[in-house]
Each structure stands twice: as structure tokens, then as C-alpha cells.
Amino acid sequence: MPAAGARLRGRRGAPTFVIQEHHARRLHWDLRLERDGVYVSWAVPKGLPTDKATNHLAVHVEDHPLEYGSFQGTIPKGEYGAGEVAIWDKGTYESTKWTDREVKFHLHGERVDARYVLFKTKGDNWMIHREDPAPEGWQPVPELVLPMLAVAGELPAERGRQWRYEFKWDGVRTITYVEGGRVRLVSRAEHDRTAAYPEIRALGDALGSRQLVLDGEIIALDAAGRPSFEALQPRMLVDDAARARRLAATVPVTYMVFDLLHLDGASTLALPYVERRRLLDGLGLGGDHWTVPASHEGPGADLLEAAKGAGLEGVVAKRADSPYRPGQRSGDWVKVKLQRTQSVVIGGYTQPKGSRSGFGALLVGIPGPEGLVYAGKVGTGFSEQAITELLSRLQPLRRAVPPFAGSVPSTDAADATWVEPELVGEVRFSEWTRAGRLRQAAWLGLRDVAPSDVVRET
């Protein structure tokens, strides 16, 4: 127990309350209501609900002395509740009902002025419900925001300050939802990847009671310290939480945050890019596994040259006045690559030859108006581990006939095993042939995107 401080004083004899933000083993908020000379207390893992639609768990804990209500500071390691404590709100309250199973009260605080009810469910578990409507204009954190996508192209013609430039990161696009100190990570294919990246979940603890939706890219570094899509592969599609924790120790990741889509009850989608970036920069995000990389005014050619010198993938040019367009591929964002890459859908594989095991080459395509259009073979760039993992994913998808619309050259199809077109990968290539095939395609790795999201890059 930390040393007691001065007792909080209620106005005109009204009982006091205090809410302490407690960064212990798991972030939570301690709600304390003065009654009969003590603070009756509940630990609320996600904080007070902001609207009537959502109830939050509240765990009844032991009563605390009134002097404890003014405490904020550090509880040393080894003591109960070890961690940082800060006063989140304080004031007085009115109670309209108080029984062993239900407590109704109106908080008059510096941050909160609203009516709540606590009701017992089982054992020490209670729920807390807000009885008042949410503050005017307040919006809940959305369940899903689809990422805005860039078109491939050249550096735009620069006039004034119309464009801003960011480095292009060789990682996986991820939308992050933060609420009540909890983090949810969702891939571009709408898969929940929270368990795959346990080191990023600490972002919620750092943000406390803030409500955010962030857009960014998760990257891993190679031995030379450069972002590497290949280095990220072991982390991308992990579903087992224990395995993810083990991998986090050997293949750590960083979340490169480059956009802000929701902030403390307000959508920011309609704001211009430069305003969203101003708000994002003002959050002061920075940790061992997340950061906000700079946005540059240009010239774009200088930034592209810097990307080349750093061994990066390229740059993304973003129109300064553009809103965020969820789920749309827009010319307001232009990705300028230093090497040609293409997302492809796997439609089959050939038998191995020589010393190779597993498979020889992948047969890939790109969705078109009539279906999956054959785009050629990918036979290089595979490690033995990649071949083993790919084959384990492809074998359950086997089918009797090709998934491609139109014919596949007989030389490619002669010994092919066809698969359902469900897996998407990334390849590096030199150029498109006149027949619409990838020339000198080399495998980079699997991608966590839906086949329907794949488009041909120019």
C-alpha cells in the first residue's frame, strides 16, 4: 500500500469519488465511491462506458481508506497492484440507490458528469452501465474501416504544397483499433491479427483511455537493418498466441503509423491529409514497437533518391488536401516503386525437378473481368522453409481443373497440380511480356489480402 495522501474534500458535504488510472499488470481504472468512511471500490478494465449501448465489466474489490483517493505515483514492484497510478477524474456524486446488488449514482467530475448504474452479475463481477446519452456529437470507435489504397505511378508534378511524401514500407497493412486500453489489429483482408503481434498490444496501455483508429504498416528488419517482407513472413499468418510470443523475441516487429482515422469520439476521415497528420503527430506516439515516421513536403525526387540510398521500396505521394477514402484505390495516393512488384493469386504448382523438393514453380494469375487471368510461373526466390510452408497450405486446396479463365500454355500445365485460388503472394519481376506474363518473377512471400483485392500494377 502506498503512503496515504490528503483526503479529497467534497463540496457542501457531498460524498466524493475518484477514478484512478492504474497501469498494473493489465491497465484498468479504479472507481472509488465514498460511503460510510471508506471508498467502496471497483476495478473497471475498460474504463467507464461513454454511451448507453455498451456495458463494461467492473470487479468489486476491497474497500480503501479515504486518504488513498488522493494518491498518484508508483507502487513498487513486489507490492500488491505494482505499477503507475494517476488520478483520471475526481469530484462528488449523488447516490439514488445503494443495495448489495445495485448502485445508482450521478458523478460530478472534472471529466465526467453523467449518471451510471452498477449491477452485480456473479461473485465479485459487476457491470457498469451509463444511463445518460453519449455526449453530443460523440461517435463510437467503428467496428471496421477498410484501408485506403494507392495507385501505382510516377512522381506527381509538384505545384506549391499540393503533395506530401512518405517512405514506402515493405510490410503488411494493418488498421489498429484502440479503446479502453485494448488494441485490436485487423489486416487488409479483414482478418483479426491481434494475437500475431503481441508486442504491439502494449500500445493500448500507453494510450490509456484514448479512443483511436490508426492506419499503418507492420514491418520486420533484415540482418542489415532494412525493412524486409521476407523477414516478416514467419510473423504474418501466425494464429497461435504462444508461438507468436516466442517469435516476437526473435523476429520483433514495428508498427509504422502513418494515418489517424478516429480520435476520441470523432471520425477524422473527412479531414484533409495534412490535418490528420497534424493530429497524429500531436499524439506523441513512440515506443519500442511503434512509431510515426515523418511526412515530407518534398521535393519528391529527393525523397525517392533517399529511399533508394536506404534500400527502401520507394515512396508514397499523398495529396495534401485529400480526405481518407475507406476501401477505395484513389489517385490522391500514388505509390512510386524503385523495383517492380506485383501481388498474384496462386492457381497451381508444378512438380519439383532435380534436387528441389516440394514443388517446382507456382502458377499464378491476376483477377480480371472474366475471372483469374494466367500471369505465368514463379520458380525462384523460395527458401526451403517457404516451400514447406506453402505446400502445407496448398495441398488442402487441390482441385481437378485449372482455376484460370482461358487457357494455360501446355508447357506450363503439363505436370500441374491445380488449387483453389485463395492464397495471395508478392513477386518481384522485370517487366510484362506482350502476352501479359510476368518476366523473371521471383517470390517474395505470402500476403494477407483477399484475392479480389489484387490488381495488375502498371
Task: Describe the protein in words.
With 458 residues, the chain is mostly beta strands. It folds into three domains: 11-130, no CATH class; 149-337, DNA ligase/mRNA capping enzyme (D-amino Acid Aminotransferase, Chain A, domain 1, 2-Layer Sandwich); 341-453, OB fold (Dihydrolipoamide Acetyltransferase, E2P). 13% of the residues lie in helices and 40% in strands. The protein is built from seven helices and 29 strands. The chain has helices at 202-207, 229-236, 241-250, 273-282, 300-309, 384-394, 410-413, and strands at 16-23, 27-35, 38-44, 56-65, 73-75, 83-98, 102-109, 113-122, 125-130, 149-152, 163-168, 172-179, 182-187, 212-219, 254-263, 266-267, 286-287, 290-291, 314-319, 329-337, 341-349, 362-368, 371-378, 398-399, 417-419, 424-428, 431-432, 438-439, 442-447. The strands form five sheets. It has an eight-stranded antiparallel beta barrel with strand order 1-2-3-4-9-8-7-6. The longest helix has 11 residues, at 384-394. The protein is elongated. It starts with 15 loop residues before the first strand and ends in an 11-residue tail after the last strand. The relative contact order is 0.11.
